[in-house]
Amino acid sequence: MTRAAASLVLVLVALSSTFTKYVPKSGQRIPQSLSRGWGDQLNWAQTYEEALFLSRSRNKPLMVLFLLEDCPHSQALKQAFANDDEIQRTLDEDFVVLNLMQETGDQHLSPDGQYVPRIVFVDPSMTVRDDIVGPYSNRLYTYEPTDMKHLLENMKKAKKLLKHNEI
Amino acid sequence: MTRAAASLVLVLVALSSTFTKYVPKSGQRIPQSLSRGWGDQLNWAQTYEEALFLSRSRNKPLMVLFLLEDCPHSQALKQAFANDDEIQRTLDEDFVVLNLMQETGDQHLSPDGQYVPRIVFVDPSMTVRDDIVGPYSNRLYTYEPTDMKHLLENMKKAKKLLKHNEI
């Protein structure tokens, strides 16, 4: 499908959704996306359980992004993250991706506390890679918009799967 | 915002997303929606944890929908469900909604087994309402497309919160 045809499909989808029966009193809403703006072209997992399942079955590392929509740090990082071509391509081809606005019950995902934005990698063996950290010693798993190179290096580390290292 | 203006916004959003940098080799994708077609105008929770939090804080019952996208029964039910104006309005105004393609760790959500489609209500007190069942004795929490009235009656039962009943 060409990009022009894809655009047309997107427009038709957007238009068709305006003809659904129920419209809230406050007016038509734009359907929520699973990407939340962090990469509309990525296939996001919905839940941690689903993400773990996909990571194991595809033998691909999982990136878990914790964010809040009303957090200016999250929003600033989102811009850099979503517009970085290499990060997006690598995530699409080699990772399972999940973004969450709510903490899970798994405390391994918050090795140094619960804060946003926070990026934690999980190996397909379901081991949280708490050794893969960002550049800040006070919050090991956070990144600033200027840290995309550091993040990309960390993604390369995550791609070296633990099982392979052990062999 | 008028419906025409809302349509325009949707078209612009669709168009703008065609100008993002990264495009998968297989071609532009339509961003995934949290509704999965079960009600584009509803504010869907993403995870069970988030849904429980919203249900408690808003004192509204939670509807959990288990579905699979390649299951013909789920797809048939989706049509009836998404096009039922009263169900959609009631869910939007009085419920927290969550749809899941993956089971959670909470076995209370599968009182008679794990199957799809399955609809389970949870009280804001975080009690699974296993007393609210559909018309089929073999699979208590499933519904057919013709059962929307039964489902609506069950939604009314779920709206009578357990705490209120106890007073």
UniProtKB/TrEMBL annotation, chains A, B:
The keyword Signal applies. Keywords: Endoplasmic reticulum, Secreted, Signal. Its main location: endoplasmic reticulum. Residues 1-20 form the signal peptide. It is found in: Endoplasmic reticulum; Secreted. It comes from the Eukaryota. It holds the Pfam family Thioredoxin_7. GO terms for cellular component: endoplasmic reticulum; extracellular region. Coiled coil: none annotated. Belongs to the AGR family. This is Anterior gradient 2. It comes from Salarias fasciatus. The lineage of its organism: Eukaryota, Metazoa, Chordata, Craniata, Vertebrata.
